[in-house]
Design a protein that fits this description.
globular; single chain; alpha/beta; two-stranded parallel ribbon; 6-stranded parallel β-sheet; 228 residues
């Protein structure tokens, strides 16, 4: 494929950097997001999923995506163990290579849900989680869910995946160990102005990265075929 293609696009800058020695034109194009969809769930939609949330009245941390070998369940357990009685909602299928889901009274795993329903759940999140391992092939990830969380102006706790650090590091809470995740969860409950402002800036960035913007980046690059 690399020998045949005139252009190579990657969804992560880390992968583009890795491939540049193997093709004369490798272009990283950042992911898009339907920011308006995730920013504005209706009150009716939010109410419709209320009964599926974990029991209790503590703050809610949520994740949507596949639960597979890249998922570090220790970090989720650390959030559950942090102060303030955090609850955790996991949305997405579990693969055979994924970690076991803990039996915890404040954790609920719903399995896969339609994409169109995700904003309703996100409307209840007090934190969006990206508990991904940062070694092996996982280091090339640039999760779209980071933009989806930010579009709703939900604070994000994430591991320091290289592309997240490089492009979203000013908007999210970075932590790599269970203890650090526990601390980040505790800090979010303090409603610190710096964290709130970081999240608002992330929301503005997400709003600027529509799928149309991503497509236009590709079209503009195609217009330069033969000139690079």
């Amino acid at each position: 494929a690399l020998k045949t293609a005139n252009r190579v696009w990657t969804g992560t800058a880390s992968l583009a950097d890795r491939l540049k020695g193997r093709h004369r034109h490798v272009h990283f194009i950042p992911n898009g997001v339907d920011a308006e969809l995730f920013a504005n769930p209706s009150e009716q939609d939010k109410a419709s999923v209320q009964a599926e949330l974990p029991p209790g009245d503590g703050p809610l941390a949520g994740y949507f995506g596949v639960i597979n070998e890249r998922f570090d369940m220790r970090l989720v357990e650390a959030v559950l163990e942090s102060p303030h009685g955090w609850r955790v909602l996991l949305i997405g299928p579990s693969s055979s290579h994924g970690p076991a889901i803990p039996d915890h009274p404040r954790l609920r795993s719903l399995g896969a849900k339609p994409y169109s329903r995700l904003p309703a759940y996100l409307g209840h999140f007090d934190a969006g989680l990206i508990p991904y391992k940062i070694h092996g092939a996982h280091r090339f990830l640039y999760p779209v869910k980071a933009l989806e969380y930010l579009a709703a102006e939900v604070p994000v706790i994430t591991t320091s995946l290289p592309d997240i650090v490089r492009f979203l590091g000013d908007y999210v809470q970075l932590a790599d160990t269970p203890h650090a995740w526990m601390e980040q969860a505790a800090m979010l409950c303090e409603r610190r102005p710096d964290i709130l402002e970081r999240t608002r800036k992330g929301g503005r960035y997400a709003a600027s990265r529509s799928w149309k913007t991503m497509a236009n980046d590709m079209l503009n690059d195609l217009g330069n075929v033969g000139t690079a």
